[in-house]
Amino acid sequence: MPIPFTCSCGYSGEEDDALLGKLSACPRCGELQRVGGEQRKGVRADRPQPPAWADRPAPAQAKHDPYAPPASTSPYAPPQAEWSQPGPGRYGDLPPRDLEHEAHVIAIGAWNQIGGALLVAFGLLGGLMFLGGAAASKGQGPALIAVFGAFLFVFVLLGGAMFVVGAGLRSMKNWARWVTGVLIVLQLLSSAVNVIQQPSAILGAGISTAWNVAILWALFCERANALFDASYQQTFLRSPGQPRWTASPFFWLPFVMCLLGCCLAAAAGGMVGAMR
What we know:
By secondary structure, this protein is mainly α. It has 7 helices and 5 strands; from the N terminus they run βββββααααααα.
């Protein structure tokens, strides 16, 4: 017949009648109590000693490496720990990747490449149109053709240079950011001279200046200096993959502005056509 078993800690239960008059440990607090009698305070049941490793802190979990290869079922595949970075292992003591700032620099380089490709395409298209017009009207002199050819060559040359500089920025080449910095400084000086000559252009010059200053910050701040360091180049080259640079404001903000400008130009053209 079960015998009631209560403890001062508040536990209430039952014990088998075979334990009547014997000591039994409270399942909650471990205090010994005689079944069917009063509790013996201060006497605690013997408990097994915890293992030696119980007091050690739990090992830190390894951070997820977005550039690690997928797990392989092959018994000959290298351990995943060798792909981790930085620290000792496959790549040695190399600095970690700053994926957020990488995305900003890569986005700037992508827009340089887009602008360069558009310049080359515009120059080639303009050259073809001019040659077609010159063939149709035989009155075009060779001097005019030479001038336009030189103009076309400059367009293609500038576009190709912009594309190469953009590729250098996307691969974190130090020379590419210095070339970009010099060109931006020249643009800032040109904007200042333009505002002095035409004060009405201060709004457009202000927007252009703010954007150029933001690019200078992205290319020459402390985090950018670490990106273009020689040691970071080893990290960048040995760890494949690129961050999601299309999510950077240095990519989507110019994209939105270009899209808005195209919409406004189309709307203005439609209004002009309707007025005619």
